[in-house]
């Protein structure tokens, strides 16, 4: 019995002493971390609306992941190789799970989300406040200041910020230590293919993440405690908040599960192709010379500064670093705000835009990574040729991106914001005038966003500003009649929500998605040759630190500032800000899409 147990244990050790098994576990970690990251990016719009935040502050939340990453990226990249790399990766996965759980906490710690509307049955406003009634006060009802503070819940988003920072700390060891571990123990000709497989894992994760994001965005945030039949908003409304917290609980469980295998891998592995049947114990003897290097380097920073000096004096490495920072500035901004752009540009719901991105953008990326890795392996591309391939492909992808300026739609036709009450489109320099002769005596609340679509094809900020005097029905089926401002040959009626943009805009969305798929395919094909330039232009002992420094710079000079300053620019294109119950400014409800683009 004892020999049987010993045989099973030996087989288990041998199983975890193969580079391909480690590759499988690391690919699982890549799937999990990229799933979490893509889900986080897909839920930024829901978080923005849940907490009533400006886009620039949402950019800070998005960049907080990189803040956590920066805390440990350099020391982990340098000292990680001297420690037990698989165990450090496992600990990182556990921390990512913890961060996801913390992000979901605000949903359980604060009350229900109250949509900005005058029609909701839970509103404190009078039942006729959404209609055109003369001789009525235009101000919001007074409330106790302490109650207002509780309702605004202004600090709850800090949990999301803190959780994202912890998630960034947890992800720190996965890429630099995982890639260096593979580089150390895999055949040099197999390394590009293995890197390509990891990149595929980073594509499968977002595919799952965007799908999960689409499903959660389609579920109302308080679905467990609110009867959705009484809601006066639909999924296409910019006030809709999806159940963002559900996906983070799923991500937390995924990250914890993927951490388990790493605690069973040995510190070192036999070099692939040299020893096929050597267990972890025997391999430790083979790698005994490496232990001497470790003892020599116990002086904390004995060779840290020489390695850093060597990297900074490497012109190819520094040029690649500079290009990466410029490229990632655009990349981080796109992944943060493209769902919002598609929603505003083409009039689709958050769930639809997230689903479209996952369905049409990620498979081309996956195929491109695989083709890029196979090309490097098949033709044994040199570093110089790899640099040429990466440059020309990236340049062509950049030029194709300009086609997005052609696939455009007009602004939503909203009286007083983008068009006049006569239906004439406003010039961009013209100030918004929501009050006119037909609604001046209605004493409407001009800051409340409660849009209705008139039968003349023109939308209005609220039923009151449309001059509507009567309403019928409940929930999303409510209809307004006798609307003074709606000049049409019909009955001058209106329904809840903005007017649809029409079939021409749907066609433009198709063209945009096709070009986006082509762009992402070219980008992913070029990324493998480019990444191999990074790995091959530095010495073996510099790889872990070199990858870490590259990650540090792209996070510090792109991942953190780009979402913030792009978010601030997007805020400048806002046409109408939302309003919270106590008069505080909420998330933007509508943008000037021409300036946004």
Explained architecture:
It is a single chain. The protein is mainly α. The protein folds into 2 domains: 19-125 and 155-273 and 298-408 and 511-596, MFS general substrate transporter like domains (Growth Hormone, Chain: A), CATH 1.20.1250.20; 411-500, no CATH class. 57% of the residues lie in helices and 5% in strands. The strands form 2 sheets. The protein has a 5-stranded antiparallel beta sheet with strand order 2-1-5-4-3, with no helix packed on it. Strands 6-7 form a two-stranded antiparallel ribbon. The longest helix has 34 residues, at 503-536.
Keywords for this entry:
single chain; 597 residues; mainly alpha; Growth Hormone, Chain: A; 2 domains; 5-stranded antiparallel β-sheet; two-stranded antiparallel sheet; elongated
Gist of the model:
The chain is mainly α and 597 residues long. It has helices spanning 2-15, 19-42, 44-51, 55-79, 85-109, 145-152, 157-171, 174-185, 191-217, 244-259, 280-286, 288-296, 304-312, 315-346, 350-360, 362-378, 383-400, 503-536, 543-559, 561-571, 593-596; strands at 452-454, 459-460, 468-472, 479-483, 494-496, 574-579, 585-591. The termini are far apart.
Topology:
Layout: H1 2-15, H2 19-42, H3 44-51, H4 55-79, H5 85-109, H6 145-152, H7 157-171, H8 174-185, H9 191-217, H10 244-259, H11 280-286, H12 288-296, H13 304-312, H14 315-346, H15 350-360, H16 362-378, H17 383-400, E1 452-454, E2 459-460, E3 468-472, E4 479-483, E5 494-496, H18 503-536, H19 543-559, H20 561-571, E6 574-579, E7 585-591, H21 593-596
Antiparallel strand pairs: 1-2, 1-5, 3-4, 4-5, 6-7
Helix pairs in contact: 2-8, 2-9, 2-10, 3-4, 4-7, 4-19, 4-20, 5-7, 5-8, 5-10, 8-19, 9-10, 9-15, 9-16, 14-15, 14-18, 14-19, 14-20, 16-18, 17-18
């Amino acid at each position: 019995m004892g020999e049987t147990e010993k045989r099973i244990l030996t087989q288990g050790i041998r199983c975890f002493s193969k580079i391909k098994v480690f590759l499988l576990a690391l690919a699982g970690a890549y799937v999990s971390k990229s799933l979490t990251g893509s889900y986080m990016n897909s839920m930024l719009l829901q978080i923005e609306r849940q907490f009533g935040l400006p886009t620039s502050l949402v950019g800070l939340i998005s960049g907080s992941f990189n803040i956590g990453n920066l805390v440990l990226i350099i020391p982990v990249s340098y000292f990680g190789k001297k420690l037990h790399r698989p165990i450090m990766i496992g600990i990182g996965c556990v921390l990512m799970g913890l961060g996801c759980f913390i992000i979901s906490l605000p949903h359980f710690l604060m009350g229900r989300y109250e949509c900005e509307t005058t029609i909701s049955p839970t509103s404190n406003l009078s039942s006729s406040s959404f209609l055109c009634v003369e001789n009525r006060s235009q101000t919001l009802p007074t409330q106790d200041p302490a109650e207002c503070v509780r309702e605004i819940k202004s600090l709850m988003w800090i949990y999301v910020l803190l959780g994202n920072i912890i998630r960034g700390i947890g992800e720190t060891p996965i890429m630099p230590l995982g890639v260096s571990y593979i580089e150390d123990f895999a055949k040099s000709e197999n390394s590009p293919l293995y890197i390509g497989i990891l990149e595929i894992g980073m594509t499968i994760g977002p595919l799952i993440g965007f799908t999960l994001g689409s499903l959660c965005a389609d579920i109302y945030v308080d679905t467990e405690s609110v009867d959705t039949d009484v809601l006066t908003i639909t999924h296409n409304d910019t006030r809709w908040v999806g159940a963002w917290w559900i996906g983070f609980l799923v991500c937390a469980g995924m990250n914890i599960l993927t951490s388990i295998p790493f605690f069973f891998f040995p510190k070192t592995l036999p070099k692939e192709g040299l020893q096929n049947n050597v267990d972890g114990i025997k391999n430790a003897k083979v790698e005994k010379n490496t232990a001497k290097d470790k003892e020599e380097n116990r002086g904390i920073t004995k060779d840290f500064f020489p390695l850093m000096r060597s990297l900074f004096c490497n012109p190819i490495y520094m040029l690649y670093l500079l290009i990466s920072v410029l490229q990632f500035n655009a990349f981080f901004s796109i992944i943060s705000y493209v769902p919002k752009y598609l929603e505003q540009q083409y009039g689709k719901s958050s769930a639809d835009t997230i689903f479209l991105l996952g369905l049409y953008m990620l498979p081309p990326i996956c195929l491109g990574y695989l083709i890029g890795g196979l090309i490097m392996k098949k033709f044994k591309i040199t570093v110089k040729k790899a640099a040429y391939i990466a440059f020309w492909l990236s340049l062509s992808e950049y030029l194709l991106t300009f086609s997005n300026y052609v696939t455009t739609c007009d602004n939503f036709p909203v009286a007083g914001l983008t068009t006049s009450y006569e239906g004439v489109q406003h010039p961009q320099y013209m100030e918004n005038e929501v009050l006119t002769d037909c609604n001046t005596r209605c004493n409407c609340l001009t800051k409340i966003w409660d849009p209705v679509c008139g039968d003349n094809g023109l939308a209005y900020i609220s039923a009151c500003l449309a001059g509507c005097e009567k309403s019928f029905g409940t929930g999303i089926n409510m209809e307004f009649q006798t609307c003074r401002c709606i000049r049409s040959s019909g009955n001058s009626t209106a329904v809840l929500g903005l007017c649809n943009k029409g079939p021409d805009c749907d066609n433009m969305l198709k063209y945009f998605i096709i070009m986006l798929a082509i762009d992402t395919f070219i980008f992913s094909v070029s990324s493998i040759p480019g990444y191999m330039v990074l790995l091959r232009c530095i010495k073996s002992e510099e790889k872990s630190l070199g990858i870490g420094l590259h990650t540090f710079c792209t996070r510090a000079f792109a991942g953190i500032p780009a979402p913030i300053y792009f978010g601030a620019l997007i805020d400048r294109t806002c046409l109408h800000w939302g309003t919270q119950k106590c008069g505080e400014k909420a998330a933007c409800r509508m943008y000037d899409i021409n300036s946004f683009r």
